[in-house]
Each structure stands twice: as C-alpha cells, then as structure tokens.
Design goal:
Layout lengths: L5 E7 L6 H11 L2 E5 L18 H6 L2 E2 L12 H17 L3 E5 L3 H9 L9 H13 L3 H9 L1 H6 L5 H14 L3 H4 L10 E9 L2 H17 L2 H10 L14 H8 L5 H23 L5 E5 L5 H22 L2
Parallel strand pairs: 1-4, 1-5, 2-3, 2-4, 5-6
Helix pairs in contact: 1-14, 3-4, 5-8, 6-8, 10-13, 11-12, 12-13
Length: 319
C-alpha cells in the first residue's frame, strides 16, 4: 500500500436499500471501518427514525460520526467534510479500509470534491430572511426564482435553510450560485475512490420503505420522539423536521391518526428516495448493483468489484 495514496470505498443509494447491511458485510470481509455519510444519523437520540445501525452492529467493526450532535444543532455539509476527512486519514494510517456509507448526496460531494469558499453566515440577514418567510410562506423561493432561476429549480420551496443560504451567497457574491460554485474547491487528497451504488427496483423499494416505516412506528419511534421532546427538542429543532419525526409529532399532537402518519411517512420517504437516485445517477463513477444490499448476490458482486479495485490499486502502488 502506498504511503501517500490509500483506497476509499463510498457506498451510496436510496434510503431503505440496504446500504448499512452491505457496508457491514464489506467491512468484515476487507478489514474495513465504517464512516457515516447520512445527514441524520449524526444526531444523538435519533436512532429508530433514521434506521441507525444498532449498537451490536457498531461493535462488530469500528463506526465513526454517529451520535456527534444534538438534534437542535445545525450540521452543514462543510462541517461534515471538515470532521470526516481526518477520520478517513486516521483509518488509512492503520492500513484499514475506510467505507463511507450514506444517502446524503451533498454531504458526500462536500467530502470528496470540497465546497467553494462561500461567504460566512450573516446572522442579521438570515433573521430578516427567516422573518420574511414566516410572514408569507414561499417568499424566499419566489425571490430566488427572480434572481437565480436555475437554483430555484433545484431547491424545494419548503427547504428554508437552503433557500436562506442560497440568497445569502447571492447577495454577498453578487452573482448566481452556479457562478460562485465554479471557484476552485478543496478536493479530498490522498485517496483513490471506489463508488458503489445500490439500485433496487422501484416497486420493491417502495414495498421495503412501507414495511420499514410501519415497523419503526410499531417498535418505538413514537416513544423516541416523545423522549426527544421531553428533552426540549420540539418541532423548531432542524432534525425534528425530518421525515418520520415530523409525522410522529403530528400523531402525538393528535393532528394525524397512526395510519395517516405511517402512510404520509411512506409517501414522503419514497419521494426522498427518488430524489436520491436522481442525484446519484448523475455520477458516472458509480458502479451500480441491482437489488438490495442484504441480498447475497448483491454482496457477492460488491465483493468482486472491491477485489478488482484493490488488486488494481496494489498493482499501481507497486510501480
């Protein structure tokens, strides 16, 4: 293994596709250590609703970047990149294989490609924009559409945090986001990357999402949400706005029946899975695995890809 270049595996795919199962399988086979690439599993106390690996699973091989923030703390893609990169280098320094697992495309993009050096947050401006949105929902998206139509098409009208950041950058830079993003990025160095993607059939994935959602609600999600709210993490906490947690709170507040909460969570999760696949399929470097990550045939194919990758890497490093 080269002293300067190390192998890195990035495992992507939609929610409920079996990324954790496949990642754990590969880590056990190839002396791997798992690094979280999910934007919600970093939060403490949010275990069931995020499908976080169990404590037993996390004891089989080392896991990193789970339970590192409280639910009311904002955790940006830039911050994720800053704390994840040293973890990757530390794993590689022990000649183990870092395996990043996640479905948060923007977090993984920040990790591998870096982010452009955007302006710092301006609290006064952000407060004004937040107030504007509270007075008239949809105002920020309409403003963004006028100033930067391309970015408005990519950012959902209800994603207030992204809208505020986009407008903050446009105001500071006096140019559309696409122009600002063309600046030089701080790419991850020291690794050769293998990207594996799990791609189950859409109808089967929808069934898996529905099954998993029902199980979450039946095996403790409501108790988990009640405990978080008792600790002071209510609807205003960013993480508590996520799919599943929002619906669980609505049920606890008698705004939804249990069946309505489960159905709405299933629909929203399926929509999110579709957006994830749209993001990842734009990346030509991803090697796609048809099926679910807990399927032995998919695991065998992933092993084959990883064996070939490591063999080429070793041959390259020996010259």
């Amino acid at each position: 293994m080269s002293n300067s270049i190390s192998p890195l595996v990035v495992l992507v795919g939609p929610t409920a596709s079996g990324k954790s199962a496949l990642g754990l399988h590969l880590a056990q086979k190839f002396e791997g250590e798992i690094v979280n690439g999910d934007s919600l599993q970093i939060y403490r106390g949010m275990d069931i609703g995020t499908a976080k690996p169990t404590l037993a699973e996390r004891q089989t091989v080392p896991h990193y970047l789970f339970d590192v923030r409280d639910p009311n703390q904002v955790f940006t893609a830039g911050e994720y990149s800053r704390i994840a990169r040293p973890v990757l280098h530390e794993i590689a320094s022990r000649h183990h294989l870092p395996i990043v697992i996640g479905g948060a495309g923007f977090y993984l993009k920040a990790l591998l490609e870096g982010l452009f050096p955007g302006p710092q947050r301006v609290d006064a401006l952000r407060e004004r924009l937040q107030t504007l949105e509270q007075r008239r929902a949809g105002s920020l998206h309409r403003i963004l559409s006028c100033w930067d139509d391309a970015s408005a098409l990519r950012i959902h009208s209800s994603d207030v945090n992204k809208l505020i950041r986009a407008l903050e950058i446009i105001i500071a830079e006096r140019q559309p986001l696409v122009e600002a993003h063309r600046r030089e990025r701080n790419r991850l160095e020291g690794f050769t990357v293998l990207k594996l993607g799990i791609h189950p059939e859409r109808a089967l994935l929808r069934g898996r999402i529905e099954q998993r959602t029902r199980k979450m609600f039946e095996t403790g999600l409501l108790d988990e949400v009640a405990a978080l709210r008792a600790q002071g993490y209510g609807p205003e906490a960013k993480a508590m706005e996520s799919v599943g947690y929002r619906q669980a709170q609505a049920h606890l507040d008698q705004q939804m029946t249990l069946d309505e909460a489960i159905s709405n969570t299933t629909i929203r999760t399926s929509q999110y899975a579709k957006r994830q696949m749209t993001w990842f399929r734009r990346d030509p470097e991803v090697l796609w695995l048809k099926g679910f990550g807990d399927d032995p045939a998919v695991q065998a194919l992933a092993e084959s890809h990883l064996n070939n990758f490591l063999l080429k890497f070793i041959n390259f490093s020996s010259h």
